[in-house]
Amino acid sequence: MVPRYSRPDMVAIWTPEARFKIWFEIEAHATDALAELGVVPKEAAAAIWEKGAFEVDRIDEIERETKHDVIAFLTNVAEHVGPEARFMHQGMTSSDVLDTCLAVQLAKASDILIADLDALLDVLERRAREHKMTPTIGRSHGIHAEPVTFGLKLAQAHAEFARNRARLVAAREDVATCAISGAVGTFANIDPFVEEYVAGKLGLSVEPVSTQVIPRDRHAMFFATLGVIASSIERLATEVRHLQRTEVLEAEEFFSPGQKGSSAMPHKRNPVLTENLTGLARMVRGYVTPAMENVALWHERDISHSSVERYIGPDATITLDFALARLTGVMDKLVVYPERMLKNLNKMGGLVHSQRVLLALTQAGVSREDAYRLVQRNAMKVWDSDGALSLLELLKADPEVTLSNAELEDKFDLGYHLKHVDTIFARVFGAA
Amino acid sequence: MVPRYSRPDMVAIWTPEARFKIWFEIEAHATDALAELGVVPKEAAAAIWEKGAFEVDRIDEIERETKHDVIAFLTNVAEHVGPEARFMHQGMTSSDVLDTCLAVQLAKASDILIADLDALLDVLERRAREHKMTPTIGRSHGIHAEPVTFGLKLAQAHAEFARNRARLVAAREDVATCAISGAVGTFANIDPFVEEYVAGKLGLSVEPVSTQVIPRDRHAMFFATLGVIASSIERLATEVRHLQRTEVLEAEEFFSPGQKGSSAMPHKRNPVLTENLTGLARMVRGYVTPAMENVALWHERDISHSSVERYIGPDATITLDFALARLTGVMDKLVVYPERMLKNLNKMGGLVHSQRVLLALTQAGVSREDAYRLVQRNAMKVWDSDGALSLLELLKADPEVTLSNAELEDKFDLGYHLKHVDTIFARVFGAA
Amino acid sequence: MVPRYSRPDMVAIWTPEARFKIWFEIEAHATDALAELGVVPKEAAAAIWEKGAFEVDRIDEIERETKHDVIAFLTNVAEHVGPEARFMHQGMTSSDVLDTCLAVQLAKASDILIADLDALLDVLERRAREHKMTPTIGRSHGIHAEPVTFGLKLAQAHAEFARNRARLVAAREDVATCAISGAVGTFANIDPFVEEYVAGKLGLSVEPVSTQVIPRDRHAMFFATLGVIASSIERLATEVRHLQRTEVLEAEEFFSPGQKGSSAMPHKRNPVLTENLTGLARMVRGYVTPAMENVALWHERDISHSSVERYIGPDATITLDFALARLTGVMDKLVVYPERMLKNLNKMGGLVHSQRVLLALTQAGVSREDAYRLVQRNAMKVWDSDGALSLLELLKADPEVTLSNAELEDKFDLGYHLKHVDTIFARVFGAA
Amino acid sequence: MVPRYSRPDMVAIWTPEARFKIWFEIEAHATDALAELGVVPKEAAAAIWEKGAFEVDRIDEIERETKHDVIAFLTNVAEHVGPEARFMHQGMTSSDVLDTCLAVQLAKASDILIADLDALLDVLERRAREHKMTPTIGRSHGIHAEPVTFGLKLAQAHAEFARNRARLVAAREDVATCAISGAVGTFANIDPFVEEYVAGKLGLSVEPVSTQVIPRDRHAMFFATLGVIASSIERLATEVRHLQRTEVLEAEEFFSPGQKGSSAMPHKRNPVLTENLTGLARMVRGYVTPAMENVALWHERDISHSSVERYIGPDATITLDFALARLTGVMDKLVVYPERMLKNLNKMGGLVHSQRVLLALTQAGVSREDAYRLVQRNAMKVWDSDGALSLLELLKADPEVTLSNAELEDKFDLGYHLKHVDTIFARVFGAA
Q1: Which of A117, A185, B342, D412 can bridge A211 by disulfide, Cβ–Cβ 3.0-4.6 Å?
Q2: Residue A139 and residue A150: Cα distance in Å, rounded?
């Protein structure tokens, strides 16, 4: 966890205090269930809730001797509860506590991330509607293609993050399971009722079949989903970085008054937030493969997954939470320059309209190949002039181009390209 | 693609012929839609279906000059269709064809993979029911823990692959979209009706907002899902590899009569299929990160994703198809040795029953810590004797152990561990 | 292997013919060594060289029965050699052949890749010298910073690929080892002399300690090195992609006369080769993790590495070979526009000289903070004017700026930035 | 950074204090060099050393306003030094400080890791010599193959980690470079002498050509090397995990008296340290791809690498340091059971000697194929008897086996397999 790339709510999920608190709840709920079954005295279950407490430092101290964290925790709780503590953890195994706790933590982390996505989606929709009809050049291969609107770019991002939200909801469901099934998952020493009871109390579903541990394909899917979301963050961040390039400058990250772009070059305003997001996306993606390598535990379990999860549990969720919030901030305050967009759009001498001319020629009976050749030879002249020549004028002057001047002029209308923006917005945001 | 790790049906999806055939269908359906809109003559659309044809070699030849595959294809088709061919591809861009084709291919590949999973699930259920009550030792950390059944191991695998099936169905839905939206996704030169029409014909859903290309977060999610499935394959393969170890030998891959295990050591029967699956899983996982790196295309698109997909499209699906089929074969014919399982289970002098004694002691009023100490000191003697000593006898002889001989003997009952197998099977396979 | 991203010399290393030819040489040399030791008759060794032959189809046929490739090969060779063939492979194990063969293949592949790097380095040096003094704007964060020369960019690339060459030479050395040590590496049935002899004949070094297999940390290092080289390819490819952007257009991939940029937009010239290289780099990087996962084989060996290597052995080397050659072609024929570079450099109204003014102010006694503030407030005006205002004129007019007009003008000299180009070139290319 | 997987010396390299201290040294040495050049007053340089100081909290406070860490640092130092502070950082850019600092940190981290490897190599050599002649079964595919010694296993590990040491030394050299070349690497505002001077003072080499930043292929190579080392750790850890399996139990991690293996099963002694190492290896490998993705920075630099390095700089080095130390501890205290090794070796009824019989038969004139068949049919009987039958006795009784009883008995000699152990040890450890 890198403090500068973290936010307190997500960090709070991963503190020792928070973890032990969840452990305590699992143990206390389980003892309630055992009491309900008549396996342990109801007074013992009550005593645990009443007198139960723990101290992180004391647990650490005991763990240094026992080298076993759950035993250390139980010992410490027993110091508070007294003899009735022996009814805790009856028939359970450490992983019942650890894995169910991780499920609770990942579910809570998912809730924050889903809220992050909702906030981002709100901003994207607002800015998309704001710039619904702001024309800008669409670029493929970094080269001017045909006009789009800036709102369409944001609508695309909205659709992408809406998909990510749905994926995350599914991933949350995948990891939010409770296993209290004993040493090798057979319920030999604990009734399945306890698992159902605790699952209900914690808002988890029951793990159908566990083997001491909850199977790690669930977690692999979860972290893979975070990796996809991070990749979408990189995509939008890359878009902003491109738009802020000196020669393009169609949009800029908000630059606060006190901020300094460069220690050496006072004129600079750099897209540092989106560059930062690009790096953060690399990190979140980097956690995917370790999570997948965690799946093939030996037999009923080995503990190799545990160290991996101590890193990626916090690191992936904290980093992604920070990144989503940062991206939301960037998009919320993004400074957009519509006039510059229009200037760039027009700078290539009308080349962006070349396809319409091509189509018109074929519809007028010219073969596709000939039409292509005719348009390309004029387009190349414009291209080579760095936009100084006008495609429209060259086409008018080309004797082989059989369209009338009026027909040609009609093909250079910007509105033509924007006529279906409403359709696309309706698909993304629903009916206006 | 490595021929030895491929199967013909999946390979067939990725041949040039198959790809061009899908291209042709997209173009022909699109022309139908254009004809329906009145944009092109109905006769032209009919002519395309009627006279349309292509030759892979000829397309390659043209591409060598034009360096553009879709143009080469259209030129070749035009050679067959004649002048009416100029009505094909009206207002479309290459990516409309390429991306929609990839969607069709990935959907078809998904269908094969889903069928593979179904076959595997069938085998796993059959073998699980067969060995539902075959006792075997459960192992955590590679160390004997407590008894399970071999059927439970397979039920776990079944549950895991059932989850993978659901994930794959979702991933298929994610990639099975059709985009026919023109050069930068604005439908400037093509009516959205064409997209809806072609999508309907090909069994795809409509891409709500594309930017020349279908957004690559969809594909990233798809390949990530394959990576998770591969990791589950590795898990089950690793289980078999462990079970076949000389000292364990509880199960073995089927070894056909003519097969040779080693050129130098004639006695060897090696788990080569499952080792092979372990390697194949590494490969499929290796394709996940490139797929995620493909998401952040520049602006409305760049073509960096294309080369990646030429590798991983075929390689990931062909490899996973082969791996699933191989795993199904391994599990189908797996030679299981129940008597050896029982022998191994019993070899540790009853250590596997230690937890029950621990629980009985605490329930008889001994503190958890004392109970643990009492059991551990006897267990360690058994452990150090390599199973020569009997835990039961040592406990009977330990004066501090206050349980009666009858009570102790009761704790060493194997059936005790299997009483909830039915419950778990009902969760996994539904009611018997 | 994707045919369109492959070149014949590298492909030839990985054909079955080539592999079996190396196998034959290993076996024949080993038999020579055994004959020299007196273990087998000299006539047998001679007969193997003389009569030895194999047919790929026949080997495949035998393997289908034996399911063991080396046994199939030996059986086929024996069909040609006759009874003396029984002296082949004496005391050897399959991996002795397979792993030594892979070492030969990777060494050959390295030789091609090293030659590829040499060709690239030649081109980079030539183009660097050509543009040694071609001024262009240096950009950090995509934003204009200070002037550099285009030759400096290429000199940097040269230095990077020279490092990669050195790394590859080291990686080649790492993998070019010979192991002929028998079933578990103990030389129980074969004298270490055979290993030394064969190593000498094949130009390999001796593997100091093998365990049936050559340890896979060597291969992991090899493929990791390819991954680093691929990343450098991506870096230079990304530079070209940026330079070719419509708004920048300081350089362009060579666009051959017949080539079509877009099926829909005839004016387009896209950096498709460097975008392609970006994707290929992703693939080569994707092979690194599987290679690393191959290291932890079980005990003296398992065969999980083998399937991985059947993919990445050819795929990583063939792809990287193709990518290096493509990059060399791109850089060789790159169309450079010095006048456009100068135009871009000048477009920001002299902002690129801001740091010099900052330094001059501090040297004239202004505090760093005040100097920064003074320069920034004028720079921001220029920035906001999109280059219409001139920084020099604004500074002259700023009463707080205490430098004389002559002093200020001196700070806007382009030559000032290029005075150490010779120094850097001497570092990279040696003395002129 | 996960505290439980970290050691103080490595952690100390990555604290803010340590980083700012290196920054200070870079700036102060650079000012010395500038003074030597006469660019700034010698008194200023002296004053910086004399009065220079910083406070982490104060820097953080300033950075919150300026959003620029180096400017914040310089401002804080200036608060201590007074007006002469304006001579610091003359002509430098932030990256000159940041990248050179990272080089110092990675060099220091390398020194610790090299020392870690040396400690591990010492332990491996000691244990290898101790068990040089301890026979144990060699296993391929997890199946008994032929005898080796436990010392040979450790000698192999020694050779592997010796290679890793050499790789790390090379990787250290790769990253230990100093760049003080100004805003875009042209030395426009700073003489190359400063770079040489500071490099000399800090024990770094000079970066031949930088572009504001030190090129990231260097760092990619560094982290890739750590990934290879981690993979070797996984290999040795996996070996120990296998040896500790209940059915094998040839070696065990040291189990301290107070330690508890399982909260539920008091008899368990689990290989938790080596399982933990397996997980840590996954993490270190997970950092390789982000490091490679960092290479392709845009133009002269973007800052996307920075966030990645804030994670992986500390995380990869701290984790690897911890893992190497843990592995050294495990191997140092590993409890080895030679009698159990022998027992396992003998349990397969002499099957491990099958190859020798095979060779003897071929040398006695039997064709390879017949010999294989003869040995295999007897070996399979032994295999199926679970070691109850003796291969030697079966072969004696097989009428087709033409070797005499004495000849057969000679082939079942264990010493035969160990005769070249000295040779291998001499290769790995040098002459005794």
Answers
A1: A185
A2: 12
Name residue, tokens 């009463």.
C399
CB contact under 8 A, D268 and B293: no
Helix, strand, coil share (%) of chain D residues, nearest 5:
65, 5, 30
Prediction ipTM score:
0.94
Pick the catalytic residue from B141, B256, B263, B267: B141
User: Does residue A280 contact residue A319 with C-beta atoms inside 8 Å?
Assistant: yes
Q: What is the token pair recorded at A277?
A: 């997001």
Helix (H) or strand (E) segment spanning residue D406: helix D405-410
- Per-residue pLDDT for A60 more than 60? yes
Q: How far apart are CA A100 and CA A91, in angstroms?
A: 15
Q: Which of B228, B301, B420 sits opposite A221 (nearest CB)?
A: B228
Question: What is the distance between the alpha carbons of residues D20 and D28, in angstroms, rounded to a whole number?
Answer: 12
pLDDT, tens only, D47-61: 999 999 999 999 999
Q: What is the rounded distance in angstroms from the CA atom of residue D71 to the CA atom of residue D62?
A: 8
pLDDT value for B15 = 97
Name the active-site residue from A29, A68, A95, A141.
A141
Tell me the whole-structure pTM to 2 decimals: 0.96
Stretches in chain B below the pLDDT threshold 70: 257-267, 431-432
Chains that touch C (3 or more CB pairs under 8 A): A, B, D
pLDDT bin (cut points 50, 70, 90) of residue C264 is low
Angle separating helix axes C94-130 and C421-429, nearest 10 degrees = 150
Domains and CATH numbers, chain C: 1-90 (1.10.275.10), 99-183+203-347 (1.20.200.10), 351-411 (1.10.40.30)
